[in-house]
Structure formats: C-alpha cells, structure tokens
Amino acid sequence: MEQGFFGGVPHTRFNDPTDGRRNFDGRAYDLSAVLAARTLVPGATVNDVVLTGIGGALRRYLLDKGELPKSSLVTAIPMQEHVKGQRGANQLAVARASLGTNIADPIARLRAVHQSSAQSKAFIEAVGPRSFIEYAEFLPGALIVPVIRLARAAHLGQCWDTSYVANTYVTTMRGTQFPIYLVGARMIASYGFTPFTQRNGLMHSAVSYCGRMLVSINGCPAVLPDIEHYGDCMDASFAELLPREDRGTASRPKPARAPAHDR
Asked: Where do the segments described as Disordered lie (predicted)?
C-alpha cells in the first residue's frame, strides 16, 4: 500500500491521472429503505448508509478487476460546519472517512464507517473548520486564478499527488420530499455533475428527493471505462444493506469475496 499525504490511503486506479473526458451514471434507491438501514447500527446516519453503499460498490468493482487493496479506501467529504458564536456563519471543511472496503459483511462495514465518520466529525469540531481554509486568506485574490491555470497547464498535480488525500469524494445533501415543478412540468429526478482533480477520477453525490435517494456517479473513462458496471456494483451493494422487508422478494446478494492483493 502506498501511503498518502495524510497517510493510510491506498493507491487505486481512481487515483491515476485523468485526461479531461467524463462519463456519468445515476442510480436511485428507496429512501424509506435507506432510513430503515440506519437501525442496523445504533447511532448510524443516512450519510453513513450512503458511504457504506458506495464502499460496497468500490469493493465489488475492484475485486472484479483483481485490484482491491487490503486496507480500506478513504473518502473525502466536503461539509459545512456552523461557527459557534457567529450567527448564520458557516465554514467549509473537508472530512475524511473509511469506506470499509476491506470488510465483506455489510453490517460490519456500516459499523466501521459510522465509527470512522464520527471520529472525523469530532476532530473537525475540535479543531474548527476555519483551520482548513484560513491559509487561503494569505493568497492575493488576483493571483489565485492564474496560478490554478498555470498548475493545470504544467500538470503540477502529478508532482504533488493529491490522490493520497482520498480515493474518492462523496457529497450528500438533504433535498425536498415534495415535487418541484417548472412551467407545469414535474421534476422526476435530479442528478449532478462534480469536478475532477488531477488524481481523483471518481466522484459521487447523493441527494434525497420525493422518497428516493438519488446517487450521481461522475467518472473519467481513463480510470473508469465501464461506469455502468460500477453502477451495477452499487445496486448490489445497497441491496445488501436494505432490510429484507424493504427489498420485497429479492434474494440477498452474497458478500464480495476476500481482497485480491494490496497494490
């Protein structure tokens, strides 16, 4: 396993260089079933269930490729934290959490994800979200955009390998449970596009809407050429988590087998 900038992040294909291309897939899951899955682990949240489902998808996909590391993949989670003592003040922070990709049993994976997420949130609350972004205030505003463009042109992201911050990113948002209309047309679903970094070619976003959890999968064909297959892995992973009564007569998928090797 290669150690990342923050340590403990295994290298995967999703952290190989991206090439500017993009592919997309979207999946939907019953929100009541996702909510019910929280009860499998005391204290677990909807975010924990989403992360566990994504972790299971990554496990299945990488096992199929013979590329699953022995240690768990790590996700970065952009989040807003309220600043105590400042009315209406929110600051951007980025949490990191284990996805439990080294755990075959879905309930045990959910437990591990919940523990990791809780520890990460506690750390951010203790340190303060401002600590992660305050250094940007020292940069002259007029220089930020030119510097970013120069870094892209020179492929400097390959020199400072940001893949080791996390293996993927996951954003979650609570949406409305009432239908939205535009000029009389009802919005059926809402999927989003997220930007890539130089070494992160797989991004996820999840939003709840009208009784469903909608998961957007943004990939780069250079690292994820078969995004539909990855989406199928996600379906199987979420099916493992849903309580039996919420899955009707569907059979319970078998947990993915043991890790192939550690890259």
From this structure: 1-21, 244-263
